[in-house]
Each structure stands twice: as structure tokens, then as C-alpha cells.
Specification:
Elements (H helix, E strand, L loop, with lengths): L6 H16 L4 E2 L1 H10 L4 H8 L6 H13 L12 E2 L1 H16 L7 H9 L6 H4 L11 H10 L5
Parallel strand pairs: 1-2
Helix pairs in contact: 1-2, 2-4, 5-6
Length: 153
Amino acid sequence: MAPQFTDSMQTALETAYTNAQNRKQVEVTECHVLLSLLQDSEGYFCSLLRFLGLDSKIDQLLQECELVVEKAASFSNEASPPTFSQSLHQKILEADSLAKKWGDSYISPDHFLYVLWNSSKEPFSSWKKPFRRQRNWQLKQSASELERKSCKY
């Protein structure tokens, strides 16, 4: 069964795809998705980052993602539609597994953030360095508390 996504996660994936397509890029990566989540400064993903005390890192991460996406491989001639990278597929599967573990039916931005937090790839590893001591922070509990404060997906 194919993974299901919350509206905000579905929108982020569609925006990431469109972004890669407009740039004539070969693949849609997790950086494209992260970029689309970060560009929605009033969205749930950025709200969650602020709630976790990472608000000072949002602009830095946004800039780093822009650079990574800008450097992504692109077609020089007639562009073919981009495909989702193997790495993004893997992150989606990990997020789906996490959602099920948490008792959720849909993949949401908090599942994606948790999976990215555990990634050792750039730009993910550099933006979390100041928080190494908090490596085991409780994202699920923070997301639940944030939901109780009436933030929407």
C-alpha cells in the first residue's frame, strides 16, 4: 500500500516536484521537500521548528537548502520530468514506518523532520550541530503538544 500524506506534506511534495521541474533538474530530493516546507514560514513545519527552539536556524537552513537545490543535476537540453531520488524514496519509507509506529495513518511534516534529524547528510547534519546534546529530543511529544495548541497540519 502506498504511503498516505497529510495535506501539508502532500503540498510540500508537489511543490518540491514543481521546483525541480522548473529548474529542469533530474531528481527531486529530500532537500527539495525540505525547501518547500521551509518556504511556508507560517506552516506547521516551521511552527514545529520554532516550538522546538530551532527558530534561529530556519533562515540558515533555508539558505543552505537553496544552495543544495541550486547545485542539483539538471538536463542541458529538453528536460524530462524529474523522478524522486532513491534517497527521498528511502526517507518517505522511513517516515511511513515512523508514522505507523506512532499510530498515525498519514505521513506528516513531523515524521519527515524526525527522519531528516537522524540523517547524516548535508545540510541536515550541520544545522543540528548546536543541538547534539538534544539528539534524543522527543519530537513526537513536542508535535503532540503543538497540536494541542491548535496548530494545523
